[in-house]
Amino acid sequence: MPVDLREYRLVYIGPAESQTAVGDYAENFVNAVQPLFGEVVQCRTRGPGAESVADVLRCRRAVADLVAGGPPGRVLVHAELAAGAVSAFWSIAGLPGVPVTATIHDPPQGIWWPGRTKFVARHKLVMHGLHYPLRPVSRMVEGVVNGDRTLFALTRTGAESIKAVYPRADVAYVPHLVPERPDLRPVTERPKAVGFFGHVYRGKGFEQIAPIREALPDDILIRVAGRGTEALPGGPGVEIVGAVDGPAEDAFFDSVRAVVIPYGKRHFYAETYPASGSVAHAFAYRTPVVCTDYGSLAEFDEHGTAVVVRSGGADADQVAASLAGAIVELVGDNQRLADLGRHVDAYRAACSGPRTAEGFAQVWTDMLSRASVSV
């Protein structure tokens, strides 16, 4: 007999809203899955590098208490794991007597820096001197913690990478949730501009703005928005908007015909295959994407939602020139913009909150049903 999730308490662990892109995802995700369960209780954490050892211990105790307070045999724990999410990772390590699942945001590993507390994060030499040489150890530790659990990936590429590293894990692919946003005017009616959007950190490609700007004609404006972008240099043809939320975010996307995602290697530890929160935001506003083929971005070529630039072994200048060429071709072609917009609209519906909740519910129900049969 299938398990009824309405009889379960979900203990949810994830970063607070606005604590990196994963925090934004967590807020949308927990709101989407909440109707599935009889009860949802949460332990929300700070962003990577902002948590002390005391914070980690408090989160671990809080999660244990939330598990103990639920109905016996009717508790499920789910965590959002990202590169430096130490509280989430250590709160599910060795958690006894309860099914635990996790979404891996930086596949193939859930956490790359398991010791990145506030003190360690402040000292770059300590941070990488500790974690880089101990990469095999961190991978082994995660294999012990999560190696035979059910793990979710938000891209097919990410799912395959997790299976390769942790073959005992049960890996499920559910696409990155596309949040609900207001309907804007069609992209063909928006100004002749492209946007760069997201949190500023290594691998996001913001350093490509200048060479792309040089290769674009003067009549195409670049607008840049997101947390940390206010510190980026502007200049002729480059408008720095800064952090945007609510109506300001709506206005930003209403002012661009496409969003440029020039991702590259995120860190020097190993290749990672994250889903893009920036792409999800663009799709939420029915806005197509021009991107590199780095990691899992190449998958969007299959959906007809993006113009994917094949980078191969090209250097940074060549990639910038290719992206600029793709931008020029796209923003001046109303028919192509309209076609991409229709594909984005279909993808947006398929990855909405309710559809995402259905995908997770199916995996959770199957997992819990198998466990109940084996008892």
Present the secondary structure layout.
Layout: E1 9-15, H1 20-33, E2 39-45, H2 53-68, E3 75-81, H3 86-92, E4 100-104, H4 118-122, H5 124-131, H6 135-146, E5 150-153, H7 156-165, E6 170-173, E7 193-197, H8 209-215, E8 221-225, E9 238-242, H9 247-253, E10 258-261, H10 277-284, E11 289-292, H11 300-303, E12 306-309, H12 316-331, H13 334-350, H14 353-374
Parallel strand pairs: 1-2, 1-3, 3-4, 4-5, 5-6, 7-8, 7-10, 8-9, 10-11, 11-12
Helix pairs in contact: 1-14, 2-3, 8-12
Please tell me about this protein's structure.
It is a single chain. The protein has 375 residues and is of the alpha/beta class. The chain has two domains: 5-176 and 353-374, Rossmann fold, CATH 3.40.50; 187-350, Rossmann fold. Helix 3 (86-92) links the parallel strand 3 (75-81) and strand 4 (100-104). It has helices at residues 20-33, 53-68, 86-92, 118-122, 124-131, 135-146, 156-165, 209-215, 247-253, 277-284, 300-303, 316-331, 334-350, 353-374, and strands at residues 9-15, 39-45, 75-81, 100-104, 150-153, 170-173, 193-197, 221-225, 238-242, 258-261, 289-292, 306-309. Helices cover 41% and strands 16% of the residues. It is globular. The strands form two sheets. The protein has a six-stranded parallel beta sheet, sandwiched between helices. It has a six-stranded parallel beta sheet with strand order 9-8-7-10-11-12, with helices on both faces.
